[in-house]
Specification:
Blueprint: H1 3-6, H2 25-39, E1 44-48, H3 54-67, E2 72-76, H4 82-92, H5 103-118, E3 125-130, H6 137-149, E4 157-163, H7 173-177, E5 181-185, H8 190-203, H9 213-223, H10 227-243, H11 251-261
Parallel strand pairs: 1-4, 1-5, 2-3, 3-4
Helix pairs in contact: 4-5, 9-11, 10-11
Length: 268
Amino acid sequence: MYHAHWGLERSPFAGGEGLPFFEGEGQTEAIARLRYVAEQRRHALLLAGRGVGKTALLRQFAETRRYEGLQTAMMSLAGLSPREFLWQAAAQLALGPKSSDDVVQLFRRITDHGSAVGWGAGAATALLLDDADQAGADVRLQLLRLLSLASGTTPWLTVVLAATQTGARRMGDELLDALDLRVELEPWSEPEMVGYIQHALLAAGAEQPIFDDEALGALHALSDGVPRKINRLADHALLGAAAEGRDTIDAAMIEAAHDALSWTTTGS
């Protein structure tokens, strides 16, 4: 790897959950709006393009809530059956689901919990559900039932559904109409991206700048400000420049990395 060449302790852009969360202006605003929704015990739709960071943002919001002692469950709905969805929710909320519980029993565990929470003074329980646009019709039906029962005279639940802009249409009008607030996460501006690059390099142990100003401009232009593309392109540029023995990365190295990855500026 290139760690020794650049004086890094680890890969700053290699992807996965190990990457440090960077809170740009868009992330700050989105988290503030999700906090408001949870405080009001309402529901939200989080929209973002592919690779823009909705999963990372949901994970950060979940970690913050758990640190504050607030009951929170987070999961991807992609490929889950109704029982798997309800079992994961009950388990993450520490409701003691049994391996033998069926859909009816699991649903009752959650709603019984809601009845107890609803009359208390604490904050709402939160379900943060990623890939909601990939949920099956039977899971969406369970969600509608939960939203209906949780929106009585004493609301106890906040549901945040995360999806892509194009995929949200697959969720159906009835489910979309049950959500109170729409939160959109946009790609990074160039200043936000520069802040992220500096943040990631510092967290990985860098002691001096690696990308020059022209490289950063090219990196933003060729990635469209999409975090997933930025990570892949920056990581490939670090690898290529290290192989050539470079001390810094310039725009030409970014363009070479882009060509090697076979991207276009409008691709997803």
